[in-house]
Amino acid sequence: MRCLGRLFLALFLLCTFGSACKTMQAVQGKQKMAQEGTLLGKCRSHLQAAETILNNLLAEKAVRNEANTMRPYNTIMVHMDQAMSSASLLSQVHPDAQVRTDAETCEQEAQKLATDMSLNRPLYEALAAVDQKPLDADAKRMLTKTLQDFKRGGVDKNEATRQKITEIEKELVLITQEYSRNIRDDVRFIEVDSAQDLKGLPADYIASHKPGPNGKIHVTTDYPDYVPFMMYADSGQHRKALWGKFMARGYPKNEPVLSEMLKKRYELARLLGYKSYADFVVEDKMMKTAPRISEFIEKITHIAKPGADKEYAMLLHEKRRTEPHAKAVMSYERGYLEEKVKQRNYHFNSQDVRPYFEFERVQQGLLDLTSELFGIHYERVTNAHPWDKSVTVFDVYEGGKRLGRIFLDLHPRDGKYKHAAQFTVQSGLRNEQLPEGALVCNFSDPATSNGPALMDHDQVVTFFHEFGHLLHHVLGGQQNWIRFSGVSTEWDFVEAPSQFFEEWAWDVGVLQRFAKHYKTGEPIPADLVKRMRAADEFGKGLDARTQMFYSALSLNYYWKDPATFDPMQALKKMQAQYSYFPYVEGTHFQLNFGHLEGYSALYYTYMWSKVIEKDLLTPFKKAGMMNKDVARHYRDTVLRPGGSKDAEELVKDFLGRPYRFDAFKEWLEAGV
Asked: Residue 92: how many CB atoms within 10 A of its CB?
């Protein structure tokens, strides 16, 4: 779960779904805000401009065509993008709580206008009246997709129903914001008595955790603290305590919020003519129907079982070395026991690679790698004035042509989004505006680290994953219609390019370019990478089953009538059915599972995208990971088109054939 997505423009007229997902928009920077006024002032000026153009469009008396109807509508969408851009990122990352609150207000006002537009029958009729015969293929696709969005949004319903949809949409903006906020702001902690309680953890971790005024050492649920602690801390007592705090985030505040979110989304789907919200939200995705999602979950569950059985037995065997009569492995033990199994069976210790992954060197290596592969380069921008001084900014060029801009917000701070995601700062539009995107992560900060800011390899993989999204956003941001800009593909394809780019973080030739020991400068040994890759194969069956638990939870929460089931009981049932790790009484995973707000019923997309990315990898396996011809063919056939083609067509253009399940199945079953 490395990325949350908010594909606002691609799903603009689906209202709730567009507002609910977290990969979306950002900020133009303090300098531009100072020129145009406050955040709210800037936001409202874009909304007012959109309304003015809308009124002019509706007043047009001439025969409807691309110039007098579709182009003005596209400009309206640009203004909506600009309004949402300031809000969606700043509400998650700005260091000032008042700015975050203002950003949420902007989101609410922008979403209200989006809802009003999606239900505006005269606007729909104006677009529907455009003669499609003179249009080129791109314009025809844009018009067809837009009219479909209107219908899915309820424009053809009666006045009373449309009014009710408007009310529900307004409520859902507030509900989803509250659900997300309650997770983001709920940072919990444990205190340990001394450094002895940190035994097993890396030296740089221990060095950065000094006793506080009360003599205790503070360990939080923020990822830079939490993840290493769960992997390495020898104290099972303290691992369990920290895990309990992590799993309690959002409780009790999100209990009624989640129930209301499920209820309102179900009510909305019923008003729109669907059996459930899951049926509604998957209709325009690659998977098409909720039963197909369920079938996919069961298929992966079955294929993963032999490997997962073997892996779980190995974890239990490892646990019995210290607890001979143990009968089960708990979730809070998994990470630690996996490390022990990898050390014993694969002669690999995750801490051995940390000295080779110094943050600044990893970042530069990633920039150099993508430059070489995709024929682009980066230039540092020093006058961009981003939302926080720790954010670095680069312009992206291809030859002498500027393609866009990226913002790297990569270190934790108070009030900041806790996970890792790519946010759109601005959607690109050919000849009008360049795409801008931001990466929001929580890696150790060189400015505050006691010694070098070292990364686990998992964090390096996360960095590559999110950068895959960023490349897609920038390279795909040169479209004629903003509806197709950047990552505006089907939702269940959008993770494929990012998971695909993770593969480069495992290649020894790639890693030796930048993974160099922070003391000696020696590149990471090939044998160490080989053992790391072998060790990483351990746990993939259990990972797949865990992902199917999350996917089933996501699907079933939105596939049922909320009046007929209890979220907690449903969680317990699905965890028992799909996961190998039993539910622990007193935990509330469903209240801090942010994807329930963002991806709603579509968490399956991570595994579905992995099926596709394993197939996308096959040409590189033949030609080599650094083959520029294959990389640029991928760039031009998969990334550059953005959403201007269906995902199936993008994959076929790259592979020369339809996608297949074979490569994924072979990978998942290997080693069983």
From this structure: 28
